Structures are given as C-alpha cells and as structure tokens.
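Sanity check

After download, print the first record. It should look like this:
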Amino acid sequence: MQYAQSLSTLRPAIMPPPGLTSFLPTARARLVSGVDVFGDGRGRQIGQDPPARTHRERWTGLLPWQVKRVRDYVDADLHGAMSPRAAAAHARLSPGYFSRRFRQSFGVTFSRFVAARRVERARGLLVGGGGKLCEIALACGFCDQAHFTRTFGNLMGCTPGRWRRQAAASRLSA
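Expected structure tokens:
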C-alpha cells in the first residue's frame, strides 16, 4: 500500500511533459524500425558508428593557407638549399605527414616540385638573357651545370642549350 501511494506521488515527476507525449510514440517507432534515428540522412541506428566518408567528402592535400606558405617559401629561396623538413615547418606539419599531403595537393613530391620551379626560372633566364649555362645553373639553385642539364633534360626532354636555340629560333620566326 505504501508503495502504491509513493508511486502515485512520484508519477507526475517521472512522466514526460505534455508536449513530449506526442513525440514519444514516433521516436519509439523509429527506434524499433531502425530508420535514421539521428535524422541526419545517413540511416544510422543507435550503437552504429557513422559510415566512412566518401573520397569526395574527405579533405585531401594541404590546406590553402599551407599551399601559399610552402609556395612562398620555395619561391623566396629558390637559389638556396631546400629541405622537406623546413617546408613542413612552414606548413606546421610533421615531415612525413607533409610529404603525403604535399603529393596529394601537387601530384609530385616536394623535391620534384622544387626542381620544376628551378627549371621554370631557368627557362626565363635562358630566354631573357645571354648568360652562360653555368651561371644560370648556380642562379637557379643547381649545384653545377651537369646537375642543371640532367634535371632540365628530364623535365623538358632536351638540353638547356638546345632549348635556348629552339626558343631563339621561334622568337625570330614569330
């Protein structure tokens, strides 16, 4: 008897508010049927982990501010020695994580990117001035002319001297 009296006094305290009573049957039905409990369109049920994001939803590569900082670092010190460790410090990432993200952003490794930027600068110097190849090589950050010629040939498909002659011939004919 005492138990029944205490239950009747506690019932108003444990019963949901009047507006919530219409919601409870719907929520119970959703739990039982297993349909999109969280209402976020993913069809998850209680106790399930969220599904893995698709490739399009996941951010890949460096963030835009990191790309800008790394490009500025490379362009500012193109004639000097550059390391992926220093570039990673500019992007505020660990070297290994930076290397992975850099390749996702640019499609090439950091050293290949630096070589391509150096060759691009060398092409401008080859067309713009009549400097010697060894001077251009040193101005662009290559250790010697042989290294410059080898890297230029790998990226452009011909030697710097031949490229310079072809560029001069195309300028004259145009």
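If your output differs, re-run the checksum step. Summary of this record's structure: The chain has three domains: 1-51, 64-107, 113-173.
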